[in-house]
């Protein structure tokens, strides 16, 4: 029986050129994965320093004892806005008083990222007063007061858009409310961040901002916009007679004293 002899055969898929191409392909995939992981690691930074975007689909609105037919100059109207880090959804309660049930629980007391607001009529003019808690209460908030102030300023246009979108029927029935000035109260045990800022009319205050202010616009605004002060005696031009938000007691009529700063943001540049 004869023996079969065969020369060394190299399959086409194992040719040197194919091996080289396969090596190149694997290196390319490896580098692509590294780049993908690197880009993923930058996502939190992009979300922190990127533009704030309002998504109506993530907003849940609760109407508690109010309707769009009652003008806030006659019936008290407040906003309580909270955020869930788990679902990334916003919950807005529109009621006559602050919805304290949204603010319960250890997590909310730890984070203190809620925003509350109330409509006020002061000497016949309507204005929206927004309150944010920067620091105080526990040391963790004090350690990151500067960052919290930055984040609140960055996210406030989203907050105001949530107010406008959630209470859209009221603003459609009373479009003049869009001209009302927005006053933002930052509450902090650190004087630098314990301040009141005017963000201009509601129709402009909810627009995105780069955070850069023109000095001439700021000076012009500070001359035109003065913090409203209610009458000391019982009157019909101020409503409600007392603030519906307990926090606001820290900002009394003498807000220029006791380390409380009153400023005006002026007309912020559009991004």
TrEMBL record:
Subcellular location: Plastid, Chloroplast
Plastid as UniProt keyword: yes
Keywords from the UniProt entry: Chloroplast, Plastid, Transit peptide
Main subcellular localisation: plastid
Domain Staygreen protein: 54-205
Signal peptide: none
Entry keyword 4Fe-4S: no
Alphabetical list of Pfam families matching this protein: Staygreen (PF12638)
A Gene Ontology term for the protein's cellular component: chloroplast
Domain of life of the organism encoding this protein: Eukaryota
Entry similarity comment: Belongs to the staygreen family.
Protein name, as recorded: Staygreen protein domain-containing protein
Organism: Cinchona calisaya
């Amino acid at each position: 029986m004869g023996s079969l002899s065969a020369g060394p055969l190299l399959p086409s898929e194992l040719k040197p050129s194919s091996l080289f191409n396969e090596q190149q392909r694997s290196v390319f995939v490896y580098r692509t994965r590294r780049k993908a992981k690197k880009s993923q690691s930058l996502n939190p930074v992009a979300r922190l320093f990127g533009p704030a975007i309002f998504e109506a689909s993530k907003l849940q609105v609760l109407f508690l004892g109010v309707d769009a037919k009652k003008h806030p100059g006659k019936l008290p109207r407040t906003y309580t806005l909270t955020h869930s880090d788990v679902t990334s959804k916003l919950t807005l309660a529109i009621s006559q008083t602050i919805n304290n049930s949204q603010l319960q629980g250890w997590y909310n007391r730890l984070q203190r990222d809620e925003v509350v607001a109330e409509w006020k009529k002061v000497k016949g003019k309507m204005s929206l007063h927004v309150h944010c808690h920067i620091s105080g209460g526990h040391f963790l908030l004090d350690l990151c007061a500067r960052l919290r102030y930055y984040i609140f300023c960055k996210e406030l246009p989203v907050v105001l858009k949530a107010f406008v979108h959630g209470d859209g029927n009221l603003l459609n029935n009373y479009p003049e409310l869009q001209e009302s000035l927005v006053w933002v109260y930052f509450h902090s045990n650190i004087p630098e961040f314990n301040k009141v800022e005017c963000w201009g009319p509601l129709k402009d205050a909810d627009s995105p901002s780069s955070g850069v202010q023109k000095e001439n616009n700021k000076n012009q605004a500070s001359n035109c916009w003065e913090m409203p002060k209610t009458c000391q005696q019982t009157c019909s031009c101020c409503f409600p007679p007392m603030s519906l938000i307990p926090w606001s007691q820290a900002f009394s009529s003498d807000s220029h004293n006791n380390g409380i700063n009153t400023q005006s943001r002026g007309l912020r540049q559009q991004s």
